UniProtKB/TrEMBL annotation, chain A:
It comes from the Bacteria. Gene3D superfamilies: 3.30.70.3270. This is 4Fe-4S dicluster domain-containing protein. Coiled coil: none annotated. It comes from Candidatus Lucifugimonas marina.
TrEMBL record, chain B:
This is NADH-quinone oxidoreductase subunit D. Belongs to the complex I 49 kDa subunit family. One of its GO terms (cellular component) is plasma membrane. SUPFAM superfamilies: HydB/Nqo4-like. Keywords: Cell membrane, Membrane, NAD, Oxidoreductase, Quinone, Translocase, Transport, Ubiquinone. The gene is nuoD. NCBIfam families: PRK06075.1. NDH-1 shuttles electrons from NADH, via FMN and iron-sulfur (Fe-S) centers, to quinones in the respiratory chain. The immediate electron acceptor for the enzyme in this species is believed to be ubiquinone. Couples the redox reaction to proton translocation (for every two electrons transferred, four hydrogen ions are translocated across the cytoplasmic membrane), and thus conserves the redox energy in a proton gradient.
Amino acid sequence: MIGLGLPRGFVVTLKNFIRPPVTEQYPDRHVGLLGAAKEAGMNPFQFLVKKPADSLKAIAGLATVPVAVKQSARFRGNEFTYFEDRCTACASCAKYCPLGIIEIVSVPGKIDAQEGESYKLEVFDIDIGRCMFCGLCVEACPYDALHMGTNFERSKYVRDELVISKEELFDAPKRPSAFYRPQFEENNFDPFKETIEDFHDAGRHEKKTYDELKKKWVDER
Amino acid sequence: MAIKTQPVTVNLGPQHPSTHGVFRMRVMFDGEEIVDVEPVFGYLHRGSEKLAEERTYTQIVTLTDRMDYVSSMLNNQAYILAVEKLAGIEPSPRGVWLRMIASELQRIASHLVATGFLLQDLGALGTPLIYAMRERENILDLFEMLCGARITNSYLRPGGVFMDAPAEFWPALDRGLDDIVNTIDELETYLSGNEIVFSRTKGTAVLPPELLINASVTGPMLRASGVDWDLRHRAPYDYYDKISFERKLHTASDNYARYWVRVQEARESVKIIRQCIEQIEPGEVRPSFDDVPRLIRPPAGDAYAAIEGSKGELGFYLVSDGGIAPYRMHVRASSLINLTLLRDMLIGGQFGDLFVTFGSVDLNMGEVDR
Ligand code: SF4
Ligand code: SF4
């Protein structure tokens, strides 16, 4: 009805004015005395007595606590996780990358009578500055050696430093994302809390039978 | 006594906050009246169609994300349908259901963005846009659960999708759909009856249906003029023939009608997703690699597949010479074709309506320039 539209609109804006904000705070958020005490693991009175300086800061609104990023387990868009022991230098990932930014150099290693010829990986560079995090390399890796990772604080001043070498990949904390790796989802692995130390744990398990899969699908819906 | 004025030419854009990207208009004004408009585009041209000629069929999915970047899933779907037609791939049922859910969610997100920015162009700085973006954020969170990315999804693969939805997706989707309905209700409460919106959008930039059909404009713009043309109903792709939904039509064909049609379509999309959730069946989400290998070599030939995108008919035309990459790819970009009537919409109008009309086309420069 003409004439009522504007007031009705203002009721909506008023409702939104008092609803809790959806803004995500990162990397830390401001807390009051209660929050600071909770962070320190004490009750507020203990906190006041034991840490007067910190409590004053908290009361003045200057205390901050770090906030974990909210990301789903499948998030892609962060650094890679790489298990060198699983990699056979097959270069499927390099071939499958739409941008061709993975460089692999391998040399024939020792000849093993039982396992056939094994290749030694000399260079494994990912130019992460040009990567668009499409995940096709992870999808292509047949041995689950390369995963999307969840470490992301990697700002650099020079572009060249954005090329991740084999050593860097090897040293990075092993927090693989569940992108294209259903085995992590099945084990309820949380990349934001745990790491994978043993490279055996990163592999795929036996394929589920159709009945098991069907049960899972029916349960989930 | 009429004041004598002299026509003035003004350059709007390419770096203008209201041009929805890098778009330039050379506008000639006579006082407040628009006498001539000349659109200039190509600032965002990245040559996606050419780049596609040296990528394999799966790798091109990542290029299609970046065409219309507010409706990546729909672009993925149109491209994958063309590949499936070209290579004769039989998709897995569960994959098809999942991609229908994903693309309908994307349609809601795209319409929300269109509405938010239309109101922004009207001068409602912030509020409606923030409300719309807040809701879109929930949809992007759902996408993150589904495929790990929020905007450049690359979720679809020839024959289905790359991964099944995780267990926490289904309850989150149910909650999300309720939220979306609430937000649309809210949006309609404060906009659909708002007198300012009425006075600014009703009766401006009216386009007769014949003109729209002659210019092959599709999508909400066409439906706002009362032409019942929706590819989901006229030429059902995927499983849209198993879904029943209403086609919302408006006959006024002005800026308000275009806004109204988008909001109602978002409502219908929620209903479509609910039906998809009911009908989705267990199974693999993509055919095995024995049937559809990673490196597809379609037989020589060509194929065109079109879907009802968020902005109109979105089609991909692929020519194969039997190799691993297409010989030629062409995109029927609905944004570009909807833009062809810009002169008819603007000339004779007022300066104040320029950006409102422009926003009501809901164009995306990433798709116009590709
Ligand atoms: S995520 Fe995509 S762009 Fe990045 S290295 Fe892997 S395949 Fe290449
Ligand atoms: S990371 Fe995977 S795909 Fe890449 S070379 Fe190693 S085993 Fe092959």
